[in-house]
# Entry
Amino acid sequence: MWKRFLAVFRRGRLDSELSAEVEFHIAMLEEENVQLGMTPADAKAAARREFGGMDQMKERYREVRGLPLLESFLADCAYALRMMRWHPLLTVAITLTLALGIGVTTAVFAVANGVLLRPLEVPETERVMVLLSTFPKEGTAFSVAEGVFLDWRAAAKSFEAMAGVWNTSMIHRGSGQPREIDVHRVTAAMFPLTGIQAREGRLFVTSAEQDVAVLEEGFWRREFGGRPDAIGAAIVLDDRPYTVIGVAPFGAPLGYLRRPDVWVPLVPRAEVRGGGAVTVIGRMRAGVSQTSAQAEMNVIQERVKREHREDSQFGVEVRSLHDWVVRDARPTVVVLMGTVALLLLLCCVNIANLLLARATARQREFAIRASLGGGQARLTRQVLTENLVLAAVGGLGGLAVASLLLKLAPSVPGLNLPRLHEVQLDGHVLAIATAVTVASILIFGLVPAWRSASGWTRSMLGTSVPASATTPAGMRLRRALVVAQLALSLVLVCGAGLLLNSFVRLTGVNAGFSRSNVLSAGVRLPYKHYDAERSLLFHRLLMEEVRGIPGVLDVSAADHLPLQAVRFPYRLTTDGTAPMEAMARNVEPRYFQVLGVPVTAGREFEPADDTRLPVPTILNVEAARRLFGGEREALGRTIKTNYKLRPVLEVVGVASNVRQMALREDPGPQMYLPMKYGSGRYVIARVAENAGDLTGAIRAAVFRLDPTIPVPEVASVGTWFEYQVAKPRLYMLLASVFAIAGLLIATAGLYGVVAFQVVRRTHEFGVRMALGAERGDIVRLVMGRETVTIIAGLALGLSGAYVVTRALSTLLYGVRPSDTPTFLAAGVLLSGVALLACYLPGRRAAGLDPSAALREE
Amino acid sequence: MSTGDPKTELLQGTLDLVVLRTLQTMGPQHGFGLAKRIGQISAGALDLNQGTLYPGLLRLEQRGWIRSKWGVSENNRKAKFYELTPLGQRQIDNERDKWEQTVTLMERFLRRAD
# Structure
């Protein structure tokens, strides 16, 4: 068997050997004949006759020698490659379309696989859960207080291991300037739970060890040059020394739990309750189901609620770790996949159309081959092989496109899906790519092949059937395909239109503050040296320093920046109205001036306000209206709050609404308090138009005040706006690209059909023009034929779009998925382009010289 | 490929045995010589047309019962010689036994009733 396979490839040599053998045989026969008395010439002729049918013998010989099926397949492939070279334009069109369709589909599937489907690289991931706190109103938070974690760990029997992770940052004082690094405080069980093993040294084992640290490989290489003597060395974090005991290798981040630079032990304190920062991970015992674990945890949490009042506001949810990591990415990936599937379908339909056109043009060629003894099955096989070759080339091109796209994916702005860096073309993806390629062959190859096969048996050589003839059924099929193409591309265009509309609305939202020419500097002060008072003093000094920088017009500070979406809700009550919740911000004087927010009633904060009583507050317009019915009415009124440090407030001013949370969220009631307490601090500065880059000057100011503080982040306040707009912009761009591609493909398809028709009817047009038809009549004739096609495409497309665009509703802002103006515009666009595709060939037909047209057969 | 016609297959099997046996008695031989010899022995009954000879030799070679080598013939021409392999030897013995059994069996049935 193996010999026969090899023989297929040794044809040339083996054929010449056979010829030599045959020659010898004939020569011997000749000799015999000569000895029998024949003349040399007669002897030779007689010898040949005696030998018998050479060609048939060689044919049989070859059948025995090789694998005829394989050989005919290879011959078909060679023929296919030749065909591809003869029709370069068609070949390039088909393979490019295929490569595009397959490539994009494969890339998106690779992303879907890597981001959503592939199990996490955590041992026994089916059993690893994350335990989250759930608040009835806000939904699910992530983390809990240390005391709660201890209670859960002690009581939970469904879990064989539980660990806590506190994601924080610390100031690392190394050889260079002090820098802020990511640190995870973890209990020792975290490492085995998430499958992290020591690369050097060891990891924590018990919670007794306190001042030890495990480095992450990247950090180890940067700070210690990858040297083994890092083990046992000391690193200083937040002014405390830790001894390095081990190094953990590079690894994948677990969604929100990014890989930190350093791990240090977490020693949970039972007395810490209420809100907290510990993320709890646990592994269920074998055989325990998620439902029973959830039930047990509910019971445990009920007990915790009863025993501790501060912990009574939340419940517990047991969620699979995998789900927690990928959940937010799901909508994006699903939409991507849907869009790409449409595009692939479009490509396949297009290719089917192209092949159908080519098949009809080749009818004569196939008729000849059929008459030479091809047989219908053989010819169908050959056409299929041709399609296979095209698909193989297209598939390879697709893989190239896919790997290029995947390489570019992580650097696409706004596409921050979890695990994106892990995405690669692995076995699963390649299998899918192959499956898609094969499926495309079946979809686009079978129809033309079948049509061609049945067409050949009917067509006859020598009749006056022109080479480009085609049956009415064939043209109907082509038209149907074009309708499908128009419909598909209309769906894509509608989707893109919706996303475009949404994006425009989002970027047009008035965030309520000035986004340009305002800088922010976030400074992190180490706890050890800066208590609340010193921290406040530092910031005020910094404000003065920054004020002195040339180019700076005005300076203020706030605990959080607009669009930062940090929520501090307080309950406000006033005489005569129901309690209301408002988000609070602590700000320094001139906050509103710097940010360009108009104060519509009353005044700004003044320097003395932070010690005044009753504590002054500035409400936003929304809060003023809700509590007091109007801006003027709010001035001078008193408010009571549930904020322990500042229970009584007096309204001294009302400011315009600012979107403090998210761009998509309408500003709710907000209140501003004078900066005195407050966790974060950002110094904000309004700068002149031509001030240039003041980052260095601001950093220098910080350095002057205290050289041991880590470098502050200096950025424009508008960055937060950009951050929120990045994803919608990405979707819009992607969708537009797909839509344009789809539109081009569909119109090309339509143009192809119409142009084909025009060529076929050249003779008819000649007759009409000779009989007095005007140019305009011809054009109208051509276009009129296709009206049905276009209308059918529109109808199908719009109804399809209506159904499909529902999937986009989560991504849209301010636009309904079935937004009529958008659909209308899309329909008009498609009709316009389609009509153009019909008009152009029509115009060409009308411009023909009638006598030349008449001569055309 | 064999046509699958049982009559042809039977004939093929018989021919294979004839060729093998001839090589066994003659020693290494080229295609022409084989054809002549077989024609002689069978007194013309086995009409070995070249359409079957060379493909048949190839098949025997594929099965490993004979092997081929290029050499020089008696009259100094280049020719391909075939010779029996040990596997071929064993095949002859197996087939001979089978034939003898068949002949004995058929004789019993076809013996004219005396």
About this structure: The first helix of chain A runs from residue 2 to 9. Residues 456-469 of chain A have pLDDT under 50 and may be disordered. The first strand of chain A starts at residue 128 and ends at 135.
